[in-house]
Protein backbone atom coordinates (compact mmCIF):
# COMPACT_ATOMS: atom_id res chain seq x y z
CA UNK A 1 0.00 0.00 0.00
CA UNK A 2 1.18 3.45 -0.78
CA UNK A 3 1.79 6.05 1.84
CA UNK A 4 -0.63 8.93 1.68
CA UNK A 5 -0.06 12.65 1.86
CA UNK A 6 -3.23 14.41 2.86
CA UNK A 7 -4.11 17.09 0.34
CA UNK A 8 -7.74 16.48 -0.49
CA UNK A 9 -9.48 15.26 2.64
CA UNK A 10 -13.23 15.48 2.70
CA UNK A 11 -14.87 16.90 5.81
CA UNK A 12 -18.65 17.10 5.70
CA UNK A 13 -20.69 18.51 8.50
CA UNK A 14 -24.46 18.22 8.34
CA UNK A 15 -24.28 17.46 4.59
CA UNK A 16 -22.20 20.61 4.02
CA UNK A 17 -18.71 20.16 2.62
CA UNK A 18 -16.42 22.42 4.67
CA UNK A 19 -13.19 20.82 3.43
CA UNK A 20 -11.86 24.04 1.94
CA UNK A 21 -11.92 25.65 5.40
CA UNK A 22 -10.45 22.75 7.38
CA UNK A 23 -6.68 22.56 7.88
CA UNK A 24 -6.48 19.40 9.93
CA UNK A 25 -8.63 16.53 11.07
CA UNK A 26 -8.04 13.80 13.61
CA UNK A 27 -10.47 10.97 14.12
CA UNK A 28 -9.68 8.85 17.13
CA UNK A 29 -11.09 5.87 18.99
CA UNK A 30 -9.98 4.79 22.44
CA UNK A 31 -11.33 1.82 24.29
CA UNK A 32 -11.60 1.72 28.04
CA UNK A 33 -9.24 -0.91 29.36
CA UNK A 34 -11.00 -3.12 31.86
CA UNK A 35 -8.78 -5.18 34.10
CA UNK A 36 -9.93 -8.74 34.60
CA UNK A 37 -7.06 -10.11 36.65
CA UNK A 38 -8.12 -12.71 39.16
CA UNK A 39 -6.60 -15.44 41.23
CA UNK A 40 -5.86 -18.14 38.76
CA UNK A 41 -7.27 -20.88 40.92
CA UNK A 42 -5.87 -24.34 41.26
CA UNK A 43 -2.14 -24.56 41.78
CA UNK A 44 -1.19 -21.89 39.21
CA UNK A 45 -1.12 -18.39 40.68
CA UNK A 46 -1.85 -15.34 38.57
CA UNK A 47 1.34 -14.29 36.79
CA UNK A 48 0.24 -11.33 34.77
CA UNK A 49 -2.63 -8.94 34.62
CA UNK A 50 -5.37 -9.66 32.16
CA UNK A 51 -7.54 -7.10 30.48
CA UNK A 52 -10.33 -6.69 28.01
CA UNK A 53 -11.72 -3.78 26.08
CA UNK A 54 -14.63 -1.87 27.50
CA UNK A 55 -16.58 0.91 25.87
CA UNK A 56 -15.07 2.83 22.99
CA UNK A 57 -14.74 6.60 23.24
CA UNK A 58 -14.62 8.29 19.83
CA UNK A 59 -13.83 11.89 19.05
CA UNK A 60 -12.97 14.14 16.16
CA UNK A 61 -10.57 17.08 16.29
CA UNK A 62 -10.75 19.75 13.62
CA UNK A 63 -8.96 22.96 12.86
CA UNK A 64 -11.19 25.35 10.97
CA UNK A 65 -10.25 28.49 9.14
CA UNK A 66 -12.81 30.89 10.46
CA UNK A 67 -15.06 32.62 7.95
CA UNK A 68 -18.00 34.79 8.93
CA UNK A 69 -19.50 35.12 5.45
CA UNK A 70 -22.97 33.76 4.74
CA UNK A 71 -22.96 30.02 4.19
CA UNK A 72 -19.44 29.62 5.50
CA UNK A 73 -17.89 28.21 8.69
CA UNK A 74 -19.43 30.38 11.40
CA UNK A 75 -22.89 30.30 9.85
CA UNK A 76 -22.68 26.52 9.59
CA UNK A 77 -21.22 25.61 12.97
CA UNK A 78 -22.66 28.18 15.36
CA UNK A 79 -26.32 27.04 15.07
CA UNK A 80 -25.21 23.49 15.86
CA UNK A 81 -23.54 24.37 19.15
CA UNK A 82 -24.88 22.16 21.93
CA UNK A 83 -26.47 19.73 19.51
CA UNK A 84 -25.39 16.82 17.38
CA UNK A 85 -24.52 16.71 13.71
CA UNK A 86 -23.88 13.95 11.22
CA UNK A 87 -20.33 14.09 9.91
CA UNK A 88 -18.27 12.38 7.24
CA UNK A 89 -14.52 12.34 6.76
CA UNK A 90 -12.66 10.66 3.94
CA UNK A 91 -8.97 10.74 2.92
CA UNK A 92 -9.60 11.66 -0.70
CA UNK A 93 -12.77 13.47 -1.65
CA UNK A 94 -12.21 12.94 -5.37
CA UNK A 95 -12.01 9.16 -5.21
CA UNK A 96 -14.88 6.78 -4.50
CA UNK A 97 -15.19 4.96 -1.23
CA UNK A 98 -12.84 1.99 -1.29
CA UNK A 99 -10.53 -0.05 0.91
CA UNK A 100 -7.78 2.49 0.21
CA UNK A 101 -10.16 5.43 0.60
CA UNK A 102 -12.53 4.58 3.44
CA UNK A 103 -15.34 6.89 4.42
CA UNK A 104 -16.07 7.36 8.10
CA UNK A 105 -19.58 8.37 9.14
CA UNK A 106 -20.44 9.39 12.67
CA UNK A 107 -22.47 11.79 14.78
CA UNK A 108 -20.52 14.45 16.63
CA UNK A 109 -21.66 16.39 19.65
CA UNK A 110 -20.84 20.02 18.95
CA UNK A 111 -19.70 20.68 22.48
CA UNK A 112 -17.32 23.58 21.94
CA UNK A 113 -16.64 26.39 19.53
CA UNK A 114 -14.16 29.24 19.41
CA UNK A 115 -15.61 31.87 17.11
CA UNK A 116 -12.62 34.15 17.36
CA UNK A 117 -9.08 32.98 17.96
CA UNK A 118 -5.77 34.41 16.83
CA UNK A 119 -3.18 37.10 17.39
CA UNK A 120 -2.35 40.13 15.34
CA UNK A 121 -1.35 39.21 11.83
CA UNK A 122 -2.46 35.62 12.20
CA UNK A 123 -5.12 33.65 10.42
CA UNK A 124 -8.33 33.36 12.43
CA UNK A 125 -8.78 29.70 13.25
CA UNK A 126 -11.00 27.57 15.43
CA UNK A 127 -9.68 24.32 16.86
CA UNK A 128 -12.24 21.98 18.34
CA UNK A 129 -12.43 18.48 19.72
CA UNK A 130 -15.93 17.10 19.57
CA UNK A 131 -16.91 13.85 21.24
CA UNK A 132 -18.70 11.38 19.01
CA UNK A 133 -21.96 9.94 20.14
CA UNK A 134 -22.26 6.32 19.12
CA UNK A 135 -20.09 4.33 16.81
CA UNK A 136 -18.01 5.32 13.83
CA UNK A 137 -19.18 3.54 10.69
CA UNK A 138 -16.45 2.73 8.22
CA UNK A 139 -17.63 2.33 4.62
CA UNK A 140 -15.38 0.95 1.90
CA UNK A 141 -18.15 0.17 -0.57
CA UNK A 142 -17.75 2.12 -3.81
CA UNK B 1 -40.15 20.14 -1.49
CA UNK B 2 -37.20 21.34 -3.54
CA UNK B 3 -34.37 23.56 -2.45
CA UNK B 4 -31.67 25.44 -4.31
CA UNK B 5 -28.09 25.63 -3.11
CA UNK B 6 -27.08 29.27 -2.69
CA UNK B 7 -23.79 29.01 -0.80
CA UNK B 8 -20.38 28.36 -2.23
CA UNK B 9 -20.16 25.08 -0.33
CA UNK B 10 -21.19 21.72 -1.69
CA UNK B 11 -24.40 20.64 -0.01
CA UNK B 12 -25.25 16.96 -0.39
CA UNK B 13 -22.79 16.96 -3.27
CA UNK B 14 -24.63 19.74 -5.07
CA UNK B 15 -23.02 23.01 -5.98
CA UNK B 16 -24.42 26.52 -6.12
CA UNK B 17 -27.66 26.91 -8.10
CA UNK B 18 -28.25 23.16 -8.21
CA UNK B 19 -31.46 21.78 -6.75
CA UNK B 20 -31.95 19.13 -4.11
CA UNK B 21 -34.86 17.62 -2.26
CA UNK B 22 -35.63 17.17 1.40
CA UNK B 23 -34.91 13.46 0.98
CA UNK B 24 -31.46 14.26 -0.42
CA UNK B 25 -30.73 16.34 2.66
CA UNK B 26 -32.06 13.84 5.17
CA UNK B 27 -30.29 10.89 3.57
CA UNK B 28 -27.02 12.83 3.76
CA UNK B 29 -27.53 13.37 7.47
CA UNK B 30 -28.40 17.03 7.09
CA UNK B 31 -31.20 19.14 8.48
CA UNK B 32 -33.33 21.37 6.29
CA UNK B 33 -33.79 23.89 9.10
CA UNK B 34 -30.06 24.08 9.74
CA UNK B 35 -29.19 24.49 6.07
CA UNK B 36 -31.82 27.21 5.65
CA UNK B 37 -30.65 29.04 8.77
CA UNK B 38 -27.00 28.78 7.80
CA UNK B 39 -27.69 30.26 4.38
CA UNK B 40 -26.77 27.20 2.34
CA UNK B 41 -30.13 26.63 0.66
CA UNK B 42 -33.39 28.40 -0.10
CA UNK B 43 -36.74 26.99 -1.04
CA UNK B 44 -36.89 26.53 -4.78
CA UNK B 45 -40.55 27.49 -4.66
CA UNK B 46 -39.86 30.80 -3.01
CA UNK B 47 -41.03 33.71 -5.10
CA UNK B 48 -38.27 36.09 -5.94
CA UNK B 49 -39.27 39.54 -4.82
CA UNK B 50 -37.55 42.42 -6.47
CA UNK B 51 -37.93 45.51 -4.34
CA UNK B 52 -39.47 48.37 -6.23
CA UNK B 53 -37.90 51.68 -5.39
CA UNK B 54 -40.21 54.46 -6.53
CA UNK B 55 -38.56 57.30 -8.31
CA UNK B 56 -39.52 60.16 -6.05
CA UNK B 57 -40.06 63.42 -7.80
CA UNK B 58 -39.56 66.72 -6.19
CA UNK B 59 -43.33 67.17 -5.87
CA UNK B 60 -43.78 63.78 -4.16
CA UNK B 61 -41.10 64.40 -1.59
CA UNK B 62 -42.62 64.12 1.85
CA UNK B 63 -39.80 65.71 3.75
CA UNK B 64 -40.59 69.22 4.93
CA UNK B 65 -39.37 71.82 2.53
CA UNK B 66 -38.24 74.98 4.18
CA UNK B 67 -38.47 78.26 2.55
CA UNK B 68 -34.93 79.37 2.13
CA UNK B 69 -35.83 82.99 2.74
CA UNK B 70 -37.77 82.96 6.00
CA UNK B 71 -37.46 79.31 7.04
CA UNK B 72 -41.22 78.82 7.01
CA UNK B 73 -43.17 75.70 6.04
CA UNK B 74 -46.21 77.60 5.04
CA UNK B 75 -47.56 77.58 8.58
CA UNK B 76 -47.95 80.40 10.94
CA UNK B 77 -45.46 79.68 13.67
CA UNK B 78 -45.78 83.02 15.37
CA UNK B 79 -48.70 81.93 17.49
What does this molecule look like?
The complex is a heterodimer of chains A (142) and B (79). Chain A is mainly β. Chain A has one domain. Chain A contains one helix and eight strands, in the order ββββαββββ. In chain A, the strands form two sheets. Chain A has a five-stranded antiparallel β-sheet with strand order 2-1-5-6-8, with no helix packed on it. Chain A has a three-stranded antiparallel β-sheet with strand order 3-4-7, with no helix packed on it. In chain A, β1 and β2 (16-17) form a beta hairpin. Chain A starts with 9 loop residues before the first strand and ends with a strand. By secondary structure, chain B is an alpha+beta fold. Chain B has a domain at 2-43. In chain B, 15% of the residues lie in helices and 13% in strands. Chain B is built from two helices and three strands. Chain B has helices at residues 22-27, 32-37, and strands at residues 2-5, 19-21, 41-43. In chain B, strands 2-1-3 form a three-stranded antiparallel β-sheet. Chain B starts with a strand and ends in a 36-residue tail after the last strand. The chains are: A mainly beta (142), B alpha+beta (79). Chains A and B meet through β2 and β5 of A and α2 of B.
Question: Number of DSSP helices of chain B?
Answer: 2
The amount of beta strand of chain A, in percent, is: 35-45%
Mean pLDDT of chain A: 94
Q: How is the quaternary structure best described?
A: heterodimer
- The low-pLDDT segments of chain A are none
> Helix-strand pattern of chain A, N to C?
EEEEHEEEE
The percent range for helix content of chain A is: under 10%
Record field, number of beta strands of chain A: 8
Give the total of beta strands of chain B: 3
Q: How many DSSP helices of chain A? A: 1
Low-confidence stretches of chain B: none
Proportion of strand residues of chain B: 5-15%
Taking strands numbered 1, 2, ... along the chain, how are they ordered across the largest sheet of chain A?
Answer: 2-1-5-6-8
Amino acid sequence: MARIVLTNVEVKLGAVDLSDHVASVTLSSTYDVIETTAFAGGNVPAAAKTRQAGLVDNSVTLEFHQDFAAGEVEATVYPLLGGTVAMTVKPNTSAPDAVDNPRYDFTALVSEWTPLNGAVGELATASVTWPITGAIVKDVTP
Amino acid sequence: MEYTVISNKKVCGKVKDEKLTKDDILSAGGSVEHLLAAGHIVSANAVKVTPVVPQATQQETKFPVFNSVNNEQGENNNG
